[in-house]
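Problem: given the chain below (373 residues), write out its structure.
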Amino acid sequence: MDYSISLLSLIFLLPLTLSSLPPPPNHPFSKIYAFGDSFTDTGNTHSSTGPYAFRSVSNPPYGTTFFHHPTNRYSDGRLVIDFLATALSLPFLPPYLNQSSHFSSHGVNFAVAGSTALDHEVFVKHNITLDLKRESLGTQLGWFNGYLEEKGCGRVGSMECRSAMEGALFWVGEIGANDYAYSFGSSLSPKAIRQQAVRNVISFLQEILKKGAKHIIVQGLPLNGCLPLSLFLTPPEDRDALGCSSSVNKLSSDHNDLLQQKLHQLRSHHPNAIISFADYLRAHRTVVQNPKANGFVEPFKACCGAGGGQYNFDIFNTCGSKEASAACSNPSEYVNWDGVHLTEAMYEKVAEMFFHGGYCQPSFDVFLRKQEK
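Solution.
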């Protein structure tokens, strides 16, 4: 086994702008419930508990672009979920582990960095040792159930439950990349991970549908093979036509294919619900294929890093560390922020593609029109 490939287990330890767009007229959503990993986490993870090698998220220059201080978001600024809230004229979602979230009437963010689709016990069963007990999608479902109970929603269909679910948009951010990374080289094969991870996502969706969810958007995995960490750790011969890691991108593609198949089946059993797939991989690929046309200059190099060279990445000196305490002067020209996570500019571009570019199926515009009926 190639040594550089084995290091892959570290991965993911891990024209018009949306801000200028008017909110949809009479849009029907009054709250958002969000789930996922570090691509969606707005503060549930702090530096002491974050993914390995990315525990400096509480340090500058994280948050420098929009908030002007670290917010425990894994970016220089806003994430897709933040742009979603803005597009719907809602406040940014408070993280569940912040006490203020328990008083929020506009929704809550349950996403937490390092999360897996598989339960922690699965890793233990396969003798996979994690540096910390990672939260899972099941953990987030438990948090959501607890939140509903606090709202008095003890019985599905009760007035309190109807109030909690009315006007709610469920956003299931990308999740599953960490499962592949943590399990690399173990007895848990990529095929087994894919099957179990997708099964858990579908089970999660079934649970929230039972509780009355009617409008759900599920993100697929992005082009994880185009992240600087993947490019840094995989050998030069492991490259696809984009110049990214072919092996890592295949994991993402295969995962998304199975997820879309299962979502299609789920829709047939829940005809009264709208379940949209947000094609992160296709959106990411569109930008990497033609970065300049999409407003970017650097498709692969990390804006914040200490490695220099082709990818400006060093796994032992990641963004926010003493060696990487400063970022590039123009993060809006970079796709990648810290080697694993994306810049605010890229998240904004992806959000625009999701909401107005046809990268959600059913499309987000149709999603809104159907809800208004």
